[in-house]
Amino acid sequence: MNIKELFKFAFAYCGIVIGAGFATGQEIMQFFTNNGMASFISIILSVLIMTFIFRQIAKVGYIYDVESHELTLNKLFGNVVGRILDYSLVFFMFVTSFIMLAGGGSNLNESFGLPTWMGTIVLIVLVSITLMLDFDKIINLLGIATPILLIMVTVMSIYAFSTADMSISEGATYADSTVPPWNIWWIDAVVYAGLMFGVGYSFITIMGSDTRLYDVVKDGSLLGGLFVLILLLLLNGSLLLNMDAAVTKDVPALVVADAVHPWFGSIYSIIIIILIYNTVVALMYAVLVRFTDFKSKSYVTLMIILMVVAFFLTRIGFVTLINIFYPLYGYLGIIIAIGYFVLWIRKKVQRSPYYDNTEDEE
């Protein structure tokens, strides 16, 4: 076992969840924290589902040595349904992009006082410029930011637990039961896991394909899931301890970070922006090259159109956008997850053709 490759895989896996459904804290508030004390068991259930399905996704990516998610969707669901899911994923990748742009604008507003619309424009301009550059350089930035964020979340969570003025159960009384999509802890857990499948499906598939060792794919998925579980539990507990203030914020994680020290909160805010910036570039790039050739005239034209549309959609508001689109994205991810669960059952009941290239494993 190559330990370096194992941790590289696990950190990349963790980075997907951190970038799209964790860093600002709003995603956790929407799906978990506002369920009160039940949020902890909800997180455990959600991460168990995520870890299991993402492990299957990575293994299939490894076996087929794919360059995109299209082949695996067609194999699982057939060409017609696979095509529908393919286009649905592309649509929601764009939706996630402008939701994260809205989150970046809210972050800049709460951290530095910049008007939300202006912060969004700054990010859109930076993303647009970057989309005309070498995409590999952006991936390196994402890799640098993720471990730093892991350390910072751990530090601020420990601080919150050691200096809290109220207990977690007292913080739970501030929970707003109207916020979670279903307000049923186990359904919210499943929908959140589905959201992560939708966001991370393409990347995890390719990551499994690019990994040299099959053991790294299997064990790295488990280790990454453990990291996600620890971080979600820590930040959820920290938010409950600061629930009286966090419940009113678009970026509630900043309440926890600012409590450590104002400069700590400023650094955390910058890290969030870097993660949002990188994730939006990755998602928008995937959408653009799905329909156009890189740097072609149609590529530039489509990019401009999408960015203009994204800006006006971000005016709806970050929290509102999450409430509307994230649950829908979660349902799409659940459909994909069901396909992989059926695949796993087939593999256990009878030898599945999708796994013929590997030795039997658990």
UniProtKB/TrEMBL annotation:
UniProt keyword list: Membrane, Transmembrane, Transmembrane helix
InterPro entries: YkvI-like
Domain of life from the UniProt record: Bacteria
Keyword Membrane included in the entry's annotation: yes
TM spans (from-to): 7-25, 37-54, 84-102, 114-133, 140-164, 184-208, 220-243, 263-288, 300-322, 328-345
Tagged with keyword Transmembrane: yes
Endpoints of the signal sequence: none
Name under which the protein is recorded: Membrane protein YkvI
Species this protein is from: Nosocomiicoccus ampullae
